[in-house]
Description:
Layout: H1 5-19, H2 26-32, E1 33-35, H3 41-71, H4 76-103, E2 105-107, H5 109-127, H6 132-154, H7 159-165
Antiparallel strand pairs: 1-2
Amino acid sequence: MAHSPVMIRSAHHQYSTSLNANKLNPVLNAMLGYVTSGLPPSIYSRLFKYQVRASQVILIASLALLITGPILSPFTITHGRVMVSGLVLFYLSVMYSQHPGFTRFMPSRLVSLAIAALSISWALTYVLNLGSFIWKALLIAWVILYIMMFAEKGWVGFPCFTQMHSR
Length: 167
């Protein structure tokens, strides 16, 4: 059954306000994402596609760096930066792809795009050595965004783990 954009926005608004009613800032909650348990399948599917694509883009960048790294082995510093960037991006892509399963929280499209953009921008500035303040700022922005997603879910006592064991 096809849904009109008005119905989807209405359902999106209904679930975002009901799921996040107990939070202090529903606008910030809508920007970060939603608890997965109450999302309708159509919205979950759309958000999931963005989350998976972001993970895939980061993974592809990681593989490109990890393939390029050994070629640059005569250039010690560049080789090291390329390999470290490739490993970090690989870790980020795997962890981000598992985020909804571990936290029961689906990141929004904006967050998925921001995570991919910040990760790849960090890797490029780090590999090209464009100044430590730039890559450090990008890394800090990524970390803050990721922490905000965990905090949005309710960080106290890590409820993502207690929910899984309370069944």
